[in-house]
């Protein structure tokens, strides 16, 4: 049958239409042209299988649809597909890392499903900071297209290490923070010939010298081995890695100096060797790096043991942008050659022993950050004011003298941070109408001579976030404009000045305020309100008055509150909701009434100071909930009742307990002996009765001669809604102790003091011999009690004792001879007891006068005027039973013999001829 031409044409058109329809279907399904990518079914199923093996606590994979939900895996979170082929090429499931992690995220937990190997075209895989169990599977090595692999911090319970040496396309590999790695199971990396970037940071098991297989990676441009325990010298072979641009060996234990390089073929731009054990002289090290002088841009050698001085060879490093040499042993002055680095942006020479003046650095036209803190610099020239691009200038903790005037600062147009603190002889003198050319973010003039007027030029500063003028000689009232001028202030320290006036409500004026320290001034009026985000408030030693009702505001992050030494009054509030408080000091005020039970809700509290008030009642039982208490000081109140047993039974980490000068009664509970960390126990001037517990030798910290700490610190920090730490701060705890009859305030060495004071109570019984086990004790005061019995014979074993007071008791017997062995004893008081016998003789005991022994009518010998009879000789000089033949007549005959011998020798001395003859004989 013939077919018409028209029909054929229609058939052809239909075929074309069908073809076009199929083509369009393919186009639409692949997403080409309109951006709607639809992933392949096999890869979708592989991803769902991968998801089923994981525990997703925070729903990070909630967009990964199951049957009936979103079926386009290319739109899922962390998944990226190729625009042309629809294959999955990128899988980014990085978990939360460190303190910067958002609180809304959580790591994925579980195994890596074998289904992942279905992603044949995968180029990028990031599983870091998750909790992978079962190890890293070897099948990842079959992902031949993989170019980027990040497995950092994925687990620490693996027994095997993956074999991924077949990833021939891999150019980036990160295995950091994995303790399952070791030197012996990483050689497969040397087969990854395309590798450009390698990071193996902070792996505790890599305690070795630098591994030789690394040097086979000839194409490596970035190598990061920081934070391990690598030791030995830095290998010369690094210079053979011609492509290497970035080398980070910081935070290891590498020693020696840097190897001398040959030729000029290296392309190294960044070299980080901070926090190692490098020694040698800086000029030699810089000379050894001369082959990279044309390429090196970032050099960090801080925190080593490098000595010597800066050298003129530094000028050859013309490309250098950052030079960090802080925390070393550099000395001498800064050479002028440093000023010939035109590309230098950052220079850090802090924490050295550099002397002289800050030289002319005006040729450093690119310099933005200059750190010269903690040196021995004595002067600074006006030329520093010509660094027009300078943003940060730190000259704190030096010995700068003279005056900083407007000329030093006149051209620092971009200056944002200025720290001149702790230069006690440095005057800062600018006119009251001076308008600075810069807007500062940070300004610190602590312990400089800034006053007496409050600096009026601050009126032109609008961006300050941190201001510290502590101990800077300012007097008078804070001008009213100040509290309005700096709404963005986060840190304010005006302590240790002579500043007065009222402080307004800051809760709406300084809404970003985190720390405020106005201690030791003359501020008056009520305690101001603060923004609820505040972390540190120190208003101590002022003249604030009224109540502290502001405490009922919901402070979410307040960690340190010190309102001591003011004129505050009223009852303590019942609304304690300080959920983050660590240090609370309300001492030396006029508070009265009972300590409210609600204070026990402060479960983060570590330090409680309520001393020198008019508080009554008992210590509330609710304080037993404050299990983190380390210091409790309620001395000089009117508290009563028995010493609670929860001190020791519920709270075991207490270091300091001061209940002095109250009306506590009853006996000392045996639970006190459970305080293994206790170093200071002061129960003096109360009505405590009973005996000294024999279990006192269980106070472990007092049985150790060496102290493990100097200060006792309060640590606290704030984490914001994004998981970032806004402040991580510490304060030294202080305590006023009775020492050698006088009151002393201890702070910086409080952690070294170990003392027990039970004086002025009604205690009875003997001094337990167990107390002599406290060989680390520095002070022991048991005076003014009703103690009986003798002084323990082994008291000489308490070798650290510096202060011993056993006066005004009913002690009997002799003073132990071992007492004379206490070579550190500075104060001894045994007066007004019933002691008898000879006072022990010893080189150190001769330093005490008669006041140490008066009131003991049976004592004799130096330093008392009463002489001792023969029967009162010390027992250690008396004779044993085996020496009965030595009688009093023996001593008489021995005396006669001594006199005869003396006369004979005298005669010889008078007759030279007899003497000469005797000597010849």
Automatic annotation (TrEMBL):
Which membrane topology term applies here? Answer: Single-pass type I membrane protein
Keywords carried by this UniProt record: Cell membrane, Glycoprotein, Leucine-rich repeat, Membrane, Repeat, Signal, Transmembrane, Transmembrane helix
Gene3D superfamilies associated with the record? Ribonuclease Inhibitor
* Disease resistance R13L4/SHOC-2-like LRR domain location: 294-472
Enumerate the subcellular locations listed in this protein's record, separating them with semicolons.
Cell membrane
Q: What is its main location?
A: membrane
Q: Does this entry carry the keyword Transport?
A: no
Q: Where is the signal peptide?
A: 1-23
Span of domain Leucine-rich repeat-containing N-terminal plant-type:
41-82
* Regions that span the bilayer: 890-910
Report the sequence similarity comment from the record: Belongs to the RLP family.
The identity of this protein, by name, is Leucine-rich repeat-containing N-terminal plant-type domain-containing protein
Organism, as annotated: Solanum tuberosum
From the broadest rank down, the organism's phylogenetic lineage runs: Eukaryota, Viridiplantae, Streptophyta, Embryophyta, Tracheophyta
């Amino acid at each position: 049958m013939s077919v018409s031409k028209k029909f054929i044409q229609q058939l052809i058109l239909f075929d074309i239409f069908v073809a076009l329809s199929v083509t369009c279907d393919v186009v639409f399904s692949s997403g080409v042209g309109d951006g709607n990518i639809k992933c392949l079914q096999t890869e979708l199923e592989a991803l769902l299988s991968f998801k089923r093996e994981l525990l997703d606590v925070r729903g990070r994979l909630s967009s990964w649809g199951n049957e009936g939900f979103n079926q386009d895996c290319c739109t899922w979170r962390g998944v990226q597909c190729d625009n042309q082929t629809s294959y999955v090429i990128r899988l980014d499931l990085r978990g939360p890392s460190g303190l910067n992690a958002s609180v809304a995220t959580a790591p994925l937990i579980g195994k890596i499903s074998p289904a992942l190997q279905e992603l044949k075209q995968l180029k990028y895989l990031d599983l870091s900071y998750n909790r992978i169990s079962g190890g890293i599977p070897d099948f990842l090595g079959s992902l031949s297209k993989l170019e980027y692999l990040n497995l950092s911090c994925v687990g620490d319970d693996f027994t095997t290490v993956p074999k991924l040496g077949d990833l021939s396309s891999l150019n980036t590999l990160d295995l950091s923070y994995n303790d399952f790695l070791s030197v012996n199971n990483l050689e497969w990396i040397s087969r990854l010939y395309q590798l450009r970037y390698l990071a193996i940071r902070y792996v505790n098991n890599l305690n070795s010298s630098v591994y030789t297989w690394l040097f086979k990676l000839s194409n490596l441009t970035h190598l990061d081995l920081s934070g391990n325990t690598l030791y030995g010298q830095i290998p010369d072979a690094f210079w053979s890695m011609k492509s290497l641009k970035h080398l980070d060996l910081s935070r290891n234990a590498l020693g020696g100096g840097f190897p001398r390089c040959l030729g000029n073929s290296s392309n190294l731009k960044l070299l980080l060797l901070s926090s190692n054990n490098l020694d040698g002289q800086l000029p030699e090290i810089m000379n050894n790096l001369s082959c990279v002088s044309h390429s090196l841009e970032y050099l960090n050698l801080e925190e080593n043991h490098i000595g010597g001085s800066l050298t003129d060879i530094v000028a050859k490093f013309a490309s250098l942008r950052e030079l960090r040499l802080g925390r070393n042993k550099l000395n001498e002055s800064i050479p002028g050659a440093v000023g010939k680095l035109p590309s230098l942006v950052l220079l850090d020479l802090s924490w050295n022993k550099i002397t002289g003046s800050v030289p002319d650095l005006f040729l450093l036209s690119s310099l933005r950050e200059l750190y010269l803190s903690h040196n021995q610099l004595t002067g600074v020239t006006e030329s520093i004011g010509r660094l027009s691009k300078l943003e940060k200038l730190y000259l704190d903790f030096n010995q700068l003298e003279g005056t900083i005037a407007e000329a030093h600062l006149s051209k620092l147009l971009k200056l944002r941070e200025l720290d001149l603190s702790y230069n006690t002889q440095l005057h800062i003198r600018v006119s009251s109408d001076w308008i600075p050319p810069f807007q500062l973010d940070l300004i610190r003039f602590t312990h400089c001579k800034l006053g007496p007027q409050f600096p009026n030029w601050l009126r032109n500063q609008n961006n300050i976030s941190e201001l510290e003028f502590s101990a800077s000689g300012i007097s008078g009232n804070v001008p009213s404009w100040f509290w309005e001028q700096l709404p963005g202030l986060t840190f304010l320290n005006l302590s240790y000045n002579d500043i007065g006036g009222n402080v307004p409500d800051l809760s709406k004026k300084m809404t970003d305020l985190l720390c405020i320290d106005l201690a030791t001034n003359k501020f008056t009026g009520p305690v101001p309100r603060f923004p609820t985000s505040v972390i540190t408030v120190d208003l101590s030693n002022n003249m604030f008055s009224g109540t502290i009702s502001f405490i009922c505001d919901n402070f979410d992050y307040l960690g340190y509150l010190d309102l001591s030494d003011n004129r505050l009054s009223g009852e303590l509030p019942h609304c304690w909701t300080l959920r983050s408080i660590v240090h609370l000091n309300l001492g030396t005020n006029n508070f009265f009434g009972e300590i409210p039970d609600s204070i026990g809700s402060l479960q983060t509290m570590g330090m409680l100071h309520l001393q020198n008030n008019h508080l009554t009642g008992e210590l509330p039982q609710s304080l037993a909930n404050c299990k983190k208490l380390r210091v409790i000081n309620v001395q000089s109140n009117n508290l009563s009742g028995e010493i609670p047993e929860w001190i020791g039974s519920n709270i075991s980490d207490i270091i300091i307990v001061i209940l002095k000068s109250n009306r506590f009664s009853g006996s000392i509970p045996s639970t006190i002996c459970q305080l293994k960390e206790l170093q200071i126990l002061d129960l003096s001037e109360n009505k405590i009765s009973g005996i000294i517990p024999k279990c006192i030798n269980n106070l472990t910290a007092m049985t150790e001669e060496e102290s493990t700490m100097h200060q006792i610190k309060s640590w606290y920090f704030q984490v914001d809604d994004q998981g970032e730490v806004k402040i991580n701060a510490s304060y030294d705890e202080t305590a006023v102790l009775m020492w050698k009859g006088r009151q002393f305030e201890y702070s910086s060495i409080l952690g070294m003091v170990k003392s027990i004071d039970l004086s002025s109570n009604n205690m009875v019984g003997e001094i337990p011999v167990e107390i002599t086990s406290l060989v680390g004790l520095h002070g022991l005061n048991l005076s003014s009690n009703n103690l009986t019995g003798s002084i323990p014979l082994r008291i000489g074993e308490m070798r650290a004792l510096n202060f011993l007071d056993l006066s005004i008791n009913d002690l009997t017997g002799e003073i132990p001879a071992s007492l004379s062995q206490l070579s550190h004893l500075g104060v001894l008081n045994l007066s007004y007891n019933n002691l008898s016998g000879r006072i022990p003789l010893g080189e150190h005991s001769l330093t005490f006068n008669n006041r140490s022994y008066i009131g003991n009518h049976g004592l004799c010998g130096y330093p008392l005027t009463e002489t001792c009879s023969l029967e009162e000789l010390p027992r250690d000089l008396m004779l044993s039973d085996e020496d009965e033949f030595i009688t009093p007549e023996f001593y008489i005959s021995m005396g006669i013999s001594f006199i005869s011998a003396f006369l004979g020798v005298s005669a010889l001395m008078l007759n030279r001829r007899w003497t000469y003859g005797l000597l010849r004989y």
